[in-house]
Amino acid sequence: MTRLVMVSHRVIDFTTATQAGGVSVAIHNTLERHNGFWFGWNGQIEDDNLVEPTTTSVARHTTVTVPLTAAEYNDHYLGYSNSVLWPVFHNRLDLAQFEAGYYARYVSVNEKFADHLSPLIEPNDVIWIHDYHLLPMALDLRRRGIENPIGFFLHIPVGPAQALLAIPEHREHARALSAYDLIGVQTPADVRNLIDFLQQSAFGSILPSGRIRVFDAELDIGCFPVGIEPKDFSLPGPAIQTENSETSRIIGIDRLDYTKGLPQKFRAFGKFLEEYPDYRRRIVLSQFAPPTRESVEAYADITDELEALSGAINGRFGELDWVPINYIHRPMPRNELRDVYRTSRIGWVTPLLDGMNLVAKEYVASQDPFDPGVLILSKFAGAAAQLTDAVLVNPYDPNDMTQGLRLALTMPNDERIARHAKLASVVREFDSEAWGSSYFTALLHAGSRRLGKALNSSPETNDAVDRLRAIIRKSRPPSRFTAHAGR
Ligand code: ADQ
């Protein structure tokens, strides 16, 4: 039987976790439908580097995890992954820190993962590696004799080739990517940027078949927009009334990260209160933003900036009985997300660049279809390529941000209903099942091509691919590189 082996930097136990990021939510949802296991870091720091992996049964799948040492956590995770690759792929070269020693540790942690994982691989397994922490994993597994199909999915955006070429080890990354059978990204723009990078970094070329040749390998590159589990967010019945129905809540749910456009959001909110005094006391911005990666300098800077901005806006406009910005440093518990989305008049999502952004889709799925709230979405989130009926804004433009807010606050009910119906249908069609199944099937096909033999795929996954292809045909002009769904 074919097993799906998911590999990501961090493994989350959803039976106990109260908080989870976008990547782990997507992996967990897919593993609920496929036989297989999830391999990665258990979140523990241990000095002993010889610890054997721990296997645990979680809900409907198994996890196999290893700890990291303090040096590995520092140089691989905080260092190369989050102070080099994360900023560069988000086109923030100004924040990248190319420190000596980071790359060597990045390579050695990938080798450590491959050492632990390769003995667990069986002949029929399909291996799916996630995200920028693990770019070299396929090469490391191949060096250990693994011939199985191996795919990679990048959850973050692919910045312009010129930014990626500034990474000193960019040729090593191009070589690492050439070891995969399939590379999946979120949007057609990411596909274009990635091909551009491979052409410039490693003389990659596009073959008449649509496959990409890099070094001496051929691989598939395609766009697979990640989705959510809409049923986890939808609720029958009308929206629950908030305690004070005179005040409309605008909700922001983010990790505290400089890519999420939070200072731009706070500044736009202050400008709005300045320009439209009638709205004072009538709206509240509730922004959840738990700090992450606090020991990275750029994250400390954004924390200070947001404290100062919210303090200044609250000090300037606040009253004894009204605080305009409710800035909360804790994560919102997952079991409360749906109700908070549903009782918020506006979902305000403003990243400067984002792979997809699942919060936008969760907000849409949580709304009462007969009295829905309005999604304001940055045009630089991957989700904007699909959620074109949101109020799309440019987070760099303060005027566009305040006008977007005004449009959302004054939108008549029939327009809210019409926009929401279109958004909800996209969220339902491109759900997490469509994402996982279409990628899995495309990977089987890509692997079959390399191995020269057919690999098994179930009727369910083929159905999901057909469904996805039909949606893509309807929603976009045909292009060789958009939504390559295998076969
Ligand atoms: P993230 O950068 O983690 O993911 P996102 O897509 O928004 O961003 O996913 C966030 C997830 O974490 C959502 O399920 C959300 O509910 C939850 N979350 C975020 N902030 C929270 C908070 N304050 N409290 C509680 N829960 C919170 C990466 C990429 C994204 C891509 C995903 C999935 O950066 O662009 O969409 O992977 O591919």
Explain the overall architecture:
The chain has 487 residues and is of the alpha/beta class. 41% of the residues lie in helices and 17% in strands. It contains 15 helices and 16 strands. The chain has a ten-stranded mixed sheet with strand order 3-4-2-1-5-6-7-10-9-8, with helices on both faces. Helix 1 crosses helix 14, helix 8 packs across helix 12 and helix 10 crosses helix 11. The chain starts with a strand and ends in a 12-residue tail after the last helix. The site of adenosine-5'-diphosphate-glucose has 25 residues, from helix 1 and helix 11. The site of adenosine-5'-diphosphate-glucose (ADQ) has 25 residues, from helix 1 and helix 11.
Overview in brief:
This protein is an alpha/beta fold and 487 residues long. It has 15 helices and 16 strands. It has a ten-stranded mixed β-sheet, with helices on both faces. The chain has a six-stranded parallel β-sheet with strand order 13-12-11-14-15-16, sandwiched between helices.
What tags apply to this protein structure?
487 residues, alpha/beta, 6-stranded parallel β-sheet, 15 helices
SSE topology:
Elements lengths: L3 E7 L11 H10 L4 E10 L8 E5 L2 E8 L1 H20 L12 H16 L8 E5 L6 H7 L6 E4 L7 H4 L5 H9 L3 E4 L2 H15 L2 E2 L5 E3 L2 E7 L24 E6 L8 H14 L7 E6 L8 H21 L7 E4 L5 H9 L3 E4 L8 H9 L7 E5 L12 E3 L4 H13 L2 H17 L2 H20 L7 H17 L12
Parallel strand pairs: 1-2, 1-5, 2-4, 5-6, 6-7, 7-10, 11-12, 11-14, 12-13, 14-15, 15-16
Antiparallel strand pairs: 3-4, 8-9, 9-10
The site of adenosine-5'-diphosphate-glucose (ADQ) has 25 residues, from helix 1 and helix 11.
